[in-house]
Amino acid sequence: MLGEAISAVERGEDPPLVLPAARAAELRGPVTLDGIGPTAGWAEHWAAVTAKQRADSGWAQAAGRDG
Questions:
Q1: What's the rounded Cα separation, in Å, for the pair 54 and 44?
Q2: Taking the mean position of all CA atoms in its chain, how far away is CA 19?
Q3: How far apart are CA 44 and CA 40, in angstroms?
Q4: Contact at 8 Å (CB) between 54 and 67?
Q5: How far apart (Å, rounded) are the C-alpha atoms in residues 58 and 15?
Q6: Under 8 Å CB-to-CB from 38, ≥6 apart: which residues?
Q7: Which of 41, 50, 54, 60 is 20 to 30 Å from 35 by CA-CA measure?
Q8: What is the Cβ-side half-sphere exposure of residue 51, based on CA atoms within 13 angstroms?
Q9: 8 Å CB contact between 60 and 66
Q10: What confidence score (pLDDT) does residue 31 get?
Q11: What DSSP character marks residue 57?
Q12: How far is CA 61 from the centre of its chain?
């Protein structure tokens, strides 16, 4: 699968599972959380980051929600 994905990119095509920008712009809802956080207090850190992302999202603001 990796080899075919590399070949697709070499041919100028999108690899599998990549959304075109126009389709990606249509997506709505919670954003997945991925990144590096602290070792100590990691659960609290990610809960706070997730709450901020949700509160700052356009869909939450449009619905009049704060998280």
A1: 15
A2: 12
A3: 9
A4: yes
A5: 29
A6: 45
A7: 60
A8: 7
A9: yes
A10: 58
A11: S
A12: 18
Which pair of tokens denotes residue 34?
């991925």
Res 6: pLDDT:
92
**Closest by alpha carbon to 30, among 10, 12, 56?**
56
Residue 3: per-residue pLDDT = 92
Tokens of 59: 């869909």
Q: Which residues, at least 6 apart from 50, have a Cβ–Cβ distance to it below 8 Å? A: 33
Record the tokens describing residue 66, joined without a space.
């704060």
Strand (E) or helix (H) holding 44: helix 42-56
Per-residue pLDDT of the chain (67 residues; tens, 9 = 90+): 899 999 999 999 988 888 777 776 676 666 566 778 888 998 898 888 888 887 887 766 666 654 4
Per DSSP, the three-state class of 26 is helix
